[in-house]
Each structure stands twice: as C-alpha cells, then as structure tokens.
Q: What sequence folds into this?
C-alpha cells in the first residue's frame, strides 16, 4: 500500500506501523471514570468500509497520521497529521 | 584530551572503505551529528547561517549541513567535528531549541560514483521515488529492515546514516548491493 | 532439420546444449523448445499423474507439458518451461517425472490403471487405516505423481531486490504494449515497459504479418530503438510482472542472468517492486485447445504456437519435415496458420473445422463440419482420426495444431477482486470491473486481439493513462496492418469415448469433469479442488475456461452462470530464492552489536541473541567446563568485589521541553515531574488498560531535560507510545523526544568496590556517598577529559553505577576499567550473571512484566500515583485488577538439591493440581551462588501472607513437581543497605 503522507507525499506502507482506530486519540478525561476508559480501551469500531485509522511513520518522519481508508477496497481517501487532528478537536 | 582510543562503528581504528567498479564506499566517523527540535512557538534558528530545510530537504553551508527529520526537527552535521562536543556548540547557535547529541547514535557511510550508478544502487536499497533522493534531498526510510537516513549530498554522493549498533549489517547490505551491481561490469 | 525462411534466429552462430545427456545444437534467439523441435524432438516430458508422454503445446509461459530441469547439482532448477528457457551455449536440460528413461517410464503403468485413478480417487481410497496416510500413502503418491525434484542443496545463486517508481507501467511489449509505451514515452511520462520474453514484440514476432507492407518485426525493432533513446522510458525484458498489489504496486521478477552460461558473480534474478501511478495491462492472450480423444500426444500443439514456431524460429513441430501437418480449429484463426505453413512449403494435410461453412484461405484442404476423434502414436503423433457426417477415417499426420479461440490474459486484472466478464461475441472472459485501481487492460488482454485493433487499443489506453496523470499526449502514427479473418463459433470439446484432456499438467479429462458434476462438485471452486484442475505451475492457463465451458454444458447452463475463473498471484511461478531478495546469511536480518562487542569477543565471551542485539552471555575462563561455573563466578565477583557489564542495549530516550516533567508524569504511573535535577528515579509504565508494560529509570539532567531508560525489548514500543502521547493525546505540551540508545556506551559497574574503581578513572570527581549518593546522576569526565554521564543505580542490589560515554569509546572504556581494577578483582559479567543478580535481588524483568501483570502484583501499587493522571492509572484501579491477590514471592526448594522450573504452576501443598486450584506460577529461576541452591521468583495468591509455607510447583507438561518454600523475593540485602552505602 501507499500512504499519502501530508508532508512527504506517497510513501510505501513498509515504512509505517499500523495502530488502528483513530478513536484511540479520544482519551477520556480522567474524571470520566472507569466505564469511559473501558469503552475507550476495549470497544472500538472495526467497520467494513470507510475507517479512520492511525499509522505511525516509524521509518520516516515519526509522524502519527490519521488515514481514512476503505477497509474493503483499501482505497485511501485522505491522510493528515495526527497533531493537526488532535489540536482541532481540543 | 582523553587517552582512550575511539573505535569506528565498524570496529576499526581507521574508517573502512571499499571500491566496486564505479562505486566507492567509505565510512565517515569524523562527522558530528546533533538533533535540533523547535520548542513550542519557537522560530526556526539559522545555526551558523544555515537555513534549515523543509520536508525532505538537505541544506549545507560553511561546514555544516542540516536535513529535515520531522515536523520542527532536523539533524545537523558538522564534518570533522566528531571529537568535539558539537551538540553543545549547536545548542549555543540555536538558543531556545532542544538539541541532543547524536554523533555516536549513528554511523555514516558515503557512496560516491556517477549519478547513474548511484541511482542504480539506490533503487536496489530503498523504496523511494527518484525525486526523494535527487541532489539536495534527504529522508528517513527503511533499508534491509533497518531505519536509515538517506541523503543525496550532490549528484555524485549518496550518504546513509544508520543505527551505529547495526553498522555492520548496513555496511554488509551496501557492500553486497554494490558488488552485485558491478559484478557484470567487472567481468 | 533446416529452418523455414523469415525467422528471427541467428543461424550464423551455433549454441551447443544437451537434453537428457544427448548433445544438440541451436542458435541465439532459440528457446530450448524451439531448438529441440528444430532437432526433431517432440517428446519432452511425462505427465503428472498418468506419466503419459508429452511434448510442448505452446510457445510461451502458458506451457503445461514441456517442463524440464535446467542445470545440475545445487543449481538444478526444476519445472522450467522449455518454451521460455532461453538457449545458451552449454545449457544442460533434463526431463522430469519418470522412472527409467523418458522414453521407457515404468511409472507409465499409472496410465493403464487410469480407470481406477479418476478424480477424487485419492480422497476416496486412502482413507483407511488413518495412520497409513502420513507414513505410507502420501509419500508413495508424492513420489509417483509429481513434477521435478529439488536438489536439496543450499541455493548457491545470488538474488537481488529493487524498487522502481514510474508514471506508467506497461505490462507486455506486444502490439498494444509497444504502442502504449511509445505514446506515453513520447509524451514525456516516466514509463516502464516490462516484457517476460527476452525479445520485445509479443505476437508481432509470431504472427507473420506485415505492417505498412514490411515484416512486423521491423516495426518492433524501430519502436524498440526509439524507446531506447528516450531517457524517461525503461524497457525491462526478461521481466515477468507476476502480481498486482494495492495502490499501483506490482511484483516483478527479472531473470538477470538465467540466459548466461556464467552469471559472472552477479545476481541470477532480481525481485522488483514497481510502484506505478497508472498501468496498462497488455499481456496478450493465450490460445485454448479443444479436448478430443487422446489429444495429449507429443506432436499435438496449439495452432498459434505452431504459427509462432514457424514465423519466429523457422521450425515446425514434426519429427520429419515431410510429415503432414493438420489443423483442428473452430475459427478462422486456425486457417491462418494452415495458409501460412502452406505458403512456407510445409506439407499441410488440411484444416478440420466443425463449422459447416468453414472457409479456405488457400493452399490446403478444408474438412468442413468435421472433428478430430482420435489419434495414434505412442511417443509422438503418427495419425489422426477425422470424423465427418458420422464417417471416420484415419489420416497420417505428424503434427496437429488445435485452435479453440483465445483467452485474454486477464490474470493481473483479476488480482484485486476483479471479476472477469463473459463476452459472448468474442467467446472469452474479458477484464471486468473491480480490478486493481489504475490498471487499464489493452489489446488482446482486453479482447482486442487483431493486430490493428491491439495497436489502436494500446494508444487508447496510453491516452487514458496520460489524461489521468495530466500529461499532454504526443502524436503517434500507427502502421497499417493486414486484415485478419477472425470469425469463430463456440465449440468446446469433441464428445465421445476415451479420454479427452482438458488440463494437461494435472491430467484432468472431460470425464473427470463429468465425474465432478456427478459427485455434485459443480461450483468452479469445488471442481478445481476435486479434480486439481488449474493447479501447479501453469495454473490452468490453457485449461480453465475450457473446463468451465464443459461444466456449463453438463449443467445445461450458460458459461457466465456457471462461474468465472479468476487468478491469484503469481502469474507464473516465482522461485523462493528471489522472493527472499538475496536476504540470506548475514543479510537475513540486521544484527546490532554493543559498543564493547569486539572487546568481549577478544575476552572469549559467549554471545546470546536478545532481539536483534548480540550480547555477551558469559565470559568463560580457562578451566571452566560448564557455563554455570562461569556464571556463578561472575555473580560472586559482583557481590564480593566489582563487575562490569555492557548495558547499552537498554533503550534511552532524550526528553526535553518546558513541559517535559508534566509529560513524563502522564507517561509514568509514578511522579516524575518532582524529580530534582541530578537525580534518578525508578519508574513504571502502564498500558491504558492498567497492566504494567515497562519499567526503568528516569534521570533528570537539567531543568527541562530528562533521559528515560527502557528495557531492551521495549525500546521501540516505548518510544512509539511516547510519540503517540505527544502527538495524538497532548499536542500542546512543549516536549521533544529523540532516541539516543546507540549514542552512549553504557556500562554497569557493580559491586562493593565499584566506587573505588570508578574513582580511579573519574578525573578527580567526588564520588563519595555524600557527594554522589544513591540515585544521583551527573555529567563528569573520565580518563583525562572524556565526556561521561554517571548514574548511581543498581540492578544487582550492590553498590553500583552505570557510566555512559560516547559509544566510540565503549570498547576502550571496558579495557580501561579492566586494567584499572585488576587489583580490585574486576570481572566482566554477561546477561546470565545479570539475570542471577536481579533474581537474587527480586527485581522484576521481562518474565515478570509479561503484559498480564500489575503494579500490585509486584508489590509496587503505591507507585501508581493518585495525585495525577497517567496512562493506565484509571484502569489500574478497576475492580478486577484491584482485587488481584497474587504477589511476587521468592521460592526455594525444600530439598536443597532440587530444581526450580520456570513456567511451573503453584498449588497449595495438598491441593489437586487443576485449574480450579491454580494459585500462580514461577516466572524466573536460576542457581543462586548467594543462597547456594536454585531459587525462583513467582506470583502466588496472597503471597506476602504465606512466608515459610511449603507449596507445590507442578509442571504437568514435563510431569515434574517439587516442594518449594515461600520466602521474600529479596534474597539479598532486603533492607537495601548495600546500595545506599
């Protein structure tokens, strides 16, 4: 696969480490309690279709990316720096 | 000055070099390396007059060279400065930045040859489009399961920085690739 | 035999080769098959199951029969298709799959047994007794049925791998591919043109046609010459694109030196990973045959292959030039072959054509409304039976060409869930929707098989690709091709008695398909597995569609209703050697060496692999005959004097920034932000689920500068997780991270005399307990001014330090410490002694932090701070983890001579040894020189309340058990006075 890195252009997936659902970025507030963390840690979507997921450019610029990928076709609809996504949601 | 005698990453007293046809490989233990990262809200410094390059870039000036390693991060090289405390010198040139000594974290090998031979070698080592290794470009990538920084210093020079501990494996990979590439020329 | 006129073989030069030990000659431009046919050799192999004599049926990589072994000894390459093996001087080839000679194969008895060996025979027969399958039946069957044999020797050849990137990959350099490459090349696109043959041209070399009134190969040569002048075009011949992968990535094998007698030290084959923004699939088409009784004899070939051999290589496939040639065809294409052969002076018997209105293109007789219903000739064709209007007659015949239409080579278009679609007008499956994105089928591969239409379609495909890429097209003039009659009629097999082969390679006949139908193995997927149709090296290139048509006929359904046949990579067989890409021996995986590696080597160390690292395991001394002697000595030396050990492999992460302390508070379960400058603190890291995942020390070198130490195994993971926290969770914290693991040679100096030793090299630094107490750190210089970092930390429980110097000095520092401490009894120790020392001290390591344990279990729950948030803090307090009662304890055998086995499970002394009564397990064990017996660490229910209890450690796998006494996990200095002195 090729991951369209927002700064470096298309790069081979060999350079990346896959993590999974981008919902992992939405860490609950520590005051939210055990149930919220339980959902965060254990309950994640695994859709057959468009999925927002985290990829780490480990053998590249060490950026975490949020990649939007169709898990059925592997079509990649976009990728952005996770820091940009995280800052936007704050 | 300490009386301890340093050893190169390949375990020698002197840098190793090797020639295969039009390609020559050489170990560069003399180059000092330090990482430089911008702190929050900082403006990119110009250490020693060096303009820090953008993504995928490599810039050099007055014995210093810098390549982009990530957002707000660079590696800065200083040829011939390996025995000095280059990180301290760089920190002084880049106030308000996080500087970390990297000289011995990495081992540098340079391959010299004509552009066509270097490109033929590069395409056997790293999965990058030609533009990513055009003269003046640099990037981290994977080479034989090892992370490396690949730098095209100029049309005739490709430099590879690999983990110092895996220097032997990196040298082996380069040496084998160059050997295989030039075997047909030599016979 | 003399060659026909007009071929592309350099007959001025002679190449000698052998086949089954017999010497032959051929010429540059020949394949092994064309050279053998030129020498009148038809018989080239034996079939897979029945050991029937077989010759080539094709002239390309679809060949199912003519599989040979090239070379010998370790270089023997089995299952090579003679039809694509490029001839070179000295080539040695041998036939396969026969017992005795190729001509007299005694395993041909299988053919006599054929009535018993029908499809499904094995599944039904070799069921009983069950134990016989693995030991008897399978080995015997495998020996009797099979292809070539491997040498069993290590592969002596070199392989390489590489990566290429382009705008447009054109797969196939025939009429469509050349046109596409020329159009894209002239337009300035970065083009790779890959061709599996050693010569570009595809069917243009084989068809015998004219372009603009000149032989088609002339145009091919002109285009090839122009492409060679374009710097943006790379033509890769001898390169098979075998698979299409996500996002325009293709796998290809280049046969770099298979065609050379000597590889000259270079690589044999190169595995290319080609990344293309767009691709044109111009892979051509494969002719299919028409099954009829005994249609598998040497001398029966595809008619298009006969045309190729005649036009490109100037050879015909008879054993004698005077033997008559016949064609059996359901379309005009077969007639073209007959007409061309007749024009070249080959004796043509005629064309047998089931169509009542079959044409005649001149120079031969047409048998309209006729079929071939039988053949004769044990090792080669001698006669055919032609049936017309119910009347059969035998005719002498030395070569029969069969033409049942052409199957577009849709393979790569179906690699990505692309489903080929049936085109009733063309009687062929065409590339369908859903194939690899950006791949544009063109020419014969897209059903546009005529020369003119293929070239035009190549231009169309290139224009589409250039349009997608935003590259302006450049004009290309295509030469005019001759008209090619191409009418055909559906005719799939000749019904009747006897065996009519569908899949030559797997010996699958029409009857086998009927049997599959009868057994209800009707879906294509079942048909394939039941009969083995379409398996092995040719993957059914000449068989699958025909089999589908036969099944359709049996079920009374149309072909598209019956199913479709799709293909997986690889397009043709790829050797495992090249898939390895040359990564053998030292290149298999990277090895990491510590800075003192060569010093340890010189000291005679025995090394052990720890991940990618090679670490000194122990340092045997002369006279020591068992590793335990060395390890015990090393451990005692640390407890009694001083030992040194390279611990560079521990991960080191430099953390800087105004918010570094705050950041580390969130990474570590315990408080780090309060650590004073110049101090080190032990820290625990949790996963977000509350379990422990790593531990180590954190040193504060400056107000906003820390160094985090990780375990060797987790260095990469911790770094990745810290980057995740920095970028994804808390992007507004001012913190910068970088690994410095390799930058510093870090050496543990441990033992009561460690301070004394270090003082001797520390350039006058005050290392007294007051000036540099337990858990202090700081920058010093050693050995006359060398920059160093000193940490007073202990893994062994003794007074100990770790000293870090730039890695290039690690080797020299080790040697200097040995010199300087000779009178102190300084002793190098390896990972074994390191393990003994930490078990004696009760320090948790990887065996305890296995991902299932908690801070509570190792007795450190108080370290999980409640004053702040940290990763895993909330979940560590959930009920299931808070109620965990297993605790880390020490274990000693009641019988001092008994062993302690890690992995054993713990039970109360009299309890049954089952899951319900399981109370924990042993994590680590070693012989303790300090205690004088084996000791262990383990997790035990309510462990801290059970001191001195005798429990049972059982290892049901080994059937062993032992009585162990529960003791403190701190076998050495439980109060910790030694490390604070």
A:
């Amino acid at each position: 696969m090729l991951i369209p890195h927002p700064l470096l252009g298309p790069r081979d997936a060999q350079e990346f480490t896959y993590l999974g659902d981008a919902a992992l970025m939405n860490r609950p507030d520590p005051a939210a309690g055990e149930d919220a963390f339980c959902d965060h840690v254990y309950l994640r979507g695994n859709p057959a279709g468009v999925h927002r997921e985290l990829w780490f450019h480990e053998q590249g610029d060490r950026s975490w990316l949020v990649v939007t990928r169709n898990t059925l076709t592997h079509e990649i609809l976009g990728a952005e720096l996770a820091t940009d996504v995280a800052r936007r949601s704050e | 000055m300490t009386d301890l005698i340093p050893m190169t990453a390949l375990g020698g007293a002197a840098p190793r070099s090797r020639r295969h046809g039009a390609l020559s490989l050489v170990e560069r233990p003399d180059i000092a390396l330090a990482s430089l990262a911008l702190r929050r809200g900082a403006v990119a410094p110009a250490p020693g007059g060096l303009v820090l390059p953008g993504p995928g870039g490599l810039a050099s000036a007055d014995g210093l060279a810098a390549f982009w390693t990530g957002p707000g991060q660079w590696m800065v090289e200083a040829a011939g400065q390996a025995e000095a405390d280059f990180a301290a010198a760089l920190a002084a040139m880049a106030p308000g930045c996080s500087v970390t000594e990297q000289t011995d974290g990495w081992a540098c090998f340079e391959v010299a040859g004509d552009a066509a031979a270097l490109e033929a070698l590069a395409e056997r080592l790293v999965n990058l489009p030609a533009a990513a290794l055009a003269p003046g470009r640099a990037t981290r990538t994977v080479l034989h399961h090892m992370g490396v920084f690949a730098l095209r210093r100029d049309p005739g020079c490709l430099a590879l920085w690999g983990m110092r501990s895996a220097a032997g494996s990196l040298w082996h990979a380069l040496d084998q690739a160059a050997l295989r590439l030039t075997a047909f020329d030599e016979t | 035999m003399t060659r026909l006129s007009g071929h592309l073989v350099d007959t001025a030069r002679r190449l000698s080769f052998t086949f089954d030990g017999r010497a032959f000659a051929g010429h540059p431009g020949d394949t092994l098959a064309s050279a053998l046919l030129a020498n009148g050799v038809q018989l080239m192999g034996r079939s897979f199951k029945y050991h029937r004599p077989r010759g080539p049926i094709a002239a390309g990589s679809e060949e199912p029969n003519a599989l040979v072994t090239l070379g010998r000894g370790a270089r023997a390459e089995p299952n090579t298709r003679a039809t694509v093996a490029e001839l070179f001087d000295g080539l040695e080839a041998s036939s396969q799959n026969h017992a005795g000679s190729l001509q007299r194969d005694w395993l041909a008895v299988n053919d006599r047994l054929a009535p018993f060996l029908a499809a499904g025979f094995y599944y039904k027969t070799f069921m009983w007794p069950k134990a016989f399958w693995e030991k008897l039946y399978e080995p015997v069957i495998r020996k009797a049925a099979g292809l070539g044999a491997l040498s069993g020797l290590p592969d002596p050849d070199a392989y390489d791998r590489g990566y290429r990137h382009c705008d447009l990959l054109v797969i196939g350099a025939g009429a469509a591919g050349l046109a596409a490459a020329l159009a894209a090349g002239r337009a300035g696109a970065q083009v790779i043109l890959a061709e599996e043959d050693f010569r570009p041209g595809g069917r243009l070399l084989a068809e015998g046609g004219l372009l603009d009134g000149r032989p088609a190969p002339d145009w091919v040569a002109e285009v090839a010459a122009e492409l060679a002048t374009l710097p943006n075009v790379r033509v890769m011949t001898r390169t098979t694109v075998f698979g299409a992968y996500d996002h325009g990535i293709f796998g290809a094998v280049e046969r770099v030196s298979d065609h050379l007698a000597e590889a000259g030290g270079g690589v044999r084959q190169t595995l290319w990973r080609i990344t293309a923004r767009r691709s044109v699939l111009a892979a051509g088409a494969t002719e299919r045959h028409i099954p009829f009784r005994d249609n598998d004899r040497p001398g029966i070939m595809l008619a298009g292959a006969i045309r190729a051999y005649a036009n490109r290589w100037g050879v015909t496939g008879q054993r004698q030039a005077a033997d008559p040639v016949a064609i059996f065809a359901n379309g005009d294409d077969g007639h073209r072959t007959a007409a061309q052969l007749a024009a070249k002076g080959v004796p043509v018997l005629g064309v047998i054509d089931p169509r009542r209105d079959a044409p005649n293109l001149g120079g031969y007789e047409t048998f309209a409304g006729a079929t071939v219903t039988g053949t004769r000739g044990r090792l080669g064709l001698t006669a055919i039976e032609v049936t017309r209007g119910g009347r059969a007659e035998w005719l002498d015949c030395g070569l029969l060409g069969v033409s049942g239409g052409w199957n577009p080579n849709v393979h790569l278009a179906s690699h990505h869930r692309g489903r080929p679609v049936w085109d009733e007008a063309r009687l062929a499956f065409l590339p369908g929707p859903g194939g690899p994105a950006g791949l544009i089928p063109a020419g014969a591969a897209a059903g546009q098989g005529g020369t003119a239409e293929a070239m035009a379609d190549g231009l169309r495909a290139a224009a589409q690709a250039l349009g997608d890429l935003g590259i302006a097209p450049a004009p290309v003039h295509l030469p005019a091709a001759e008209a090619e009659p191409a009418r055909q009629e559906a005719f799939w097999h000749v019904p009747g008695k006897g065996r009519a082969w569908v899949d030559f390679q797997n010996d699958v006949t029409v009857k086998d398909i009927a049997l599959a139908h009868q057994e209800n193995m009707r879906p294509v997927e079942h048909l394939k597995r039941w009969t083995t149709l379409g398996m092995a090296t040719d993957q059914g290139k000449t068989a699958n569609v025909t089999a589908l048509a036969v099944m359709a006929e049996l079920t009374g359904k149309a072909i598209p209703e019956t199913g479709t046949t799709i293909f997986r990579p690889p397009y043709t067989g790829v050797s495992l050697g090249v898939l390895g890409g040359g990564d053998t021996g030292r290149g298999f995986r990277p090895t990491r060496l510590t800075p003192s590696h060569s010093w340890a080597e010189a000291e005679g160390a025995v090394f052990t692999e720890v991940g990618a690292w090679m670490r000194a395991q122990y340092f045997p001394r002369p006279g020591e005959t068992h590793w335990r002697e060395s390890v015990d000595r090393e451990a005692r030396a640390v407890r009694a004097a001083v030992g040194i050990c390279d611990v560079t492999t521990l991960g080191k992460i430099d953390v800087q920034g105004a918010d570094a302390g705050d950041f580390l508070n969130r990474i570590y379960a315990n408080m780090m932000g309060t650590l004073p400058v110049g101090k080190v603190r032990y820290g625990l890291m949790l996963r977000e689920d509350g379990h422990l995942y790593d531990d180590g020390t954190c040193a504060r070198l400056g107000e906003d500068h820390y160094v985090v130490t990780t375990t060797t195994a987790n260095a990469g993971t911790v770094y990745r997780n810290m980057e995740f926290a920095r970028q994804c969770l808390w992007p507004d914290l001012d913190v910068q991270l970088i690994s410095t693991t390799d930058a510093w040679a870090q050496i543990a100096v441990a033992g009561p005399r460690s301070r004394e030793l270090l003082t001797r090299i520390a350039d006058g630094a005050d290392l007294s307990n007051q000036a540099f107490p337990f858990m202090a750190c700081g920058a010093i210089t050693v050995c006359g001014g060398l920059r160093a970092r000193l940490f007073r930390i202990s893994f062994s429980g003794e007074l100990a330090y770790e000293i870090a110097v730039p890695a290039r000095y690690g080797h020299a520092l080790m040697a200097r410490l040995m010199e300087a401490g000779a009178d102190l009894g300084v002793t190098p120790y390896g990972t074994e002694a390191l393990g003994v020392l930490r078990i004696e001290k009760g320090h948790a390591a990887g065996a305890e932090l296995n991902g299932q344990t908690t801070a509570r279990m190792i007795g450190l729950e108080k370290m999980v701070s409640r004053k702040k948030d940290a990763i895993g803090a909330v979940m560590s307090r959930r009920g299931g983890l808070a109620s965990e009662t297993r605790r880390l304890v020490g274990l000693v055998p009641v019988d001092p001579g008994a062993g302690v086995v890690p992995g054993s499970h713990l039970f109360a002394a009299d309890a049954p040894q089952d899951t319900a009564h399981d109370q924990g397990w042993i994590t680590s064990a070693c012989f303790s020189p300090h205690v004088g017996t084996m000791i262990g660490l383990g997790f035990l229910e309510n462990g801290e309340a059970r001191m001195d209890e005798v429990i049972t450690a059982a290892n049901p796998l080994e059937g062993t058990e032992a009585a162990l006494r529960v003791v403190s996990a701190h076998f050495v200095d439980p109060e910790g006075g030694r490390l604070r002195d």
Helices of chain B lie at 86-93, 115-125, 167-186.
